[in-house]
Specification:
Order of helices and strands: HHEEEEEEEHEHEHHHHEEEEEEEEE
Radius of gyration: 24 Å
Mean pLDDT: 76
Shape: elongated
Structural class: alpha/beta
Largest sheet: 5 strands, mixed
Number of helices: 8
Helix content: 10-25%
Number of domains: 2
Distance between the termini: 33 Å
Strand order of the largest sheet: 3-18-16-8-11
Length: 397
């Protein structure tokens, strides 16, 4: 039998107001939150341990099973003041799909998972509040989850990365697509429009020129140790400055594809094997700018290879317009992984009861015994699977 939510609330009340200093790295801070919750649970009686051989983990490789499996809990860190995107990976949150089944006939389903949200006061660096919710409650209060869209990931192997970084110039690049090669310019002319405007195809800088203006200048630059998205924006800003654009902060939040539309250039920071590409894949041709008949095969990618410890840019993959360019021994090691994310159609209304300065209680019904699966806080396999499923709920506070 899982511990009753009222008891969990009592357990977790001891960490309200306790110090919690953010590192600025989302995965690291998320892991710290999970370990904090686990450390509290370890002080109290845990659900009876299931006997090996008397239960079955249903999803392949335990995908979708909560990280804190003994109590069937997933943890989430909240730092935003107005809204929060809840992402649930690799399971349909409010479904009756089996996650664990027992010889006794009992089972644990997706609906049995408890969501523990830990809100951090980023001004005081303390745990401000905690909330415990179930999938049913989330759907009842904030609407059903929506339809799937596609998200792509790029995998740059360690061997490919090492090959780039050990090269003399530390930059891997290839020519533009055949279509662009008839129009692009190889001499510099200062931009006379903004980054978000459609490109004048005759004023697109060639990859060779971008390499000269940008890539060579960025080697050795240190990006602040913050979340990937913030580092990505910092890199994008620096690239724009080097290209000669008048940088406006609102443009950095443009959020469309590609990042620098006026140069048909997508900018990415990479310090792990995977690079999130968003909805478009350079492997499949799709129209990006219809008026100019430009496709994903024409988009250029500037990927900064950063050292995860020092945040220093050590090299660049500025090599491809799609994957139509000839592949070297380095590029042939680069693969695309697909991912699927489910996004709700409903933007949630403000809920004054969602977070407050004490623990929120919610009833949940489950008398099954949780198994003792051990999950590493940062299991790299989680980030390399060809199919990643998650639901998102946008909670406006």
């Amino acid at each position: 039998m899982l511990t009753h939510p009222e008891k969990l609330a009592d357990y977790f009340s001891e960490i309200i107001g306790k110090p919690f200093v953010l590192t600025g790295k989302t995965r690291t801070d998320g892991s710290k939150v999970r370990k904090l919750i686990a450390s509290v649970l370890e002080k109290h009686p845990l659900p009876e341990l299931a006997v090996v051989g008397q239960f079955e983990i249903v999803p392949p490789k335990a995908k979708g099973v909560p990280k804190i499996a003994r109590e069937f809990i997933d943890t989430y860190m909240v730092t935003s003041g107005d809204s929060y995107n809840l992402k649930v990976w690799n399971r349909l949150p409010a479904s009756q799909i089996l996650l664990v089944k027992y010889e006794s006939g009992e089972s644990l389903k997706c609906t049995d998972v408890r969501f523990v949200f830990v809100r951090i006061d980023i001004q005081k660096n303390v745990v401000a509040s905690i909330i415990i919710l179930t999938p049913e409650y989330i759907e009842q209060k904030f609407g059903r989850f929506g339809k799937p869209t596609v998200k792509q990931q790029l995998l740059i192997s360690n061997k490919a990365r090492k090959g780039i970084l050990e090269s003399e110039e530390k930059i891997l690049s290839f020519p533009d697509s055949k279509k662009l090669s008839y129009y692009i310019r190889h001499d510099y002319l200062p931009p006379n429009t903004g980054m978000v405007t459609e490109p004048d195809i005759k004023n697109l800088f060639s990859i060779a020129l971008i390499r000269k203006l940008v890539a060579n200048e960025l080697i050795g630059l240190r990006l602040d140790a913050a979340a990937t998205k913030n580092r990505g924006q910092a890199l994008e800003k620096k690239v724009l400055e080097l290209l000669g654009y008048d940088v406006k902060e609102k443009d950095l939040l443009y959020g469309a594809f590609p990042d620098i539309k006026n140069q048909l250039l997508e900018v990415k920071v990479q310090d792990t094997q995977t690079v999130d590409l968003g909805r478009f894949s350079p492997e499949r041709e799709e129209i990006v700018i219809e008026s100019l008949n430009l496709t994903t095969f024409d988009v250029r990618y500037l990927i900064a290879l950063t050292n995860p410890k020092t945040e220093i840019i050590e090299g660049f993959n500025n090599s491809f317009s799609g994957f139509s360019s000839p592949k070297s021994s380095h590029l042939s090691l680069i693969k695309i992984l697909s991912a699927v994310d489910f996004i709700p159609t409903l933007t949630l209304k403000k809920s004054p009861t969602l977070f407050f300065e004490e623990v929120s209680i919610l009833e949940t019904q489950s008398d099954s015994i949780a198994d003792s699966i051990s999950h590493d806080a940062e299991d790299e396999i989680e980030y390399l699977m060809p199919l990643r499923i998650f639901y998102i709920v946008l909670i406006q506070l």
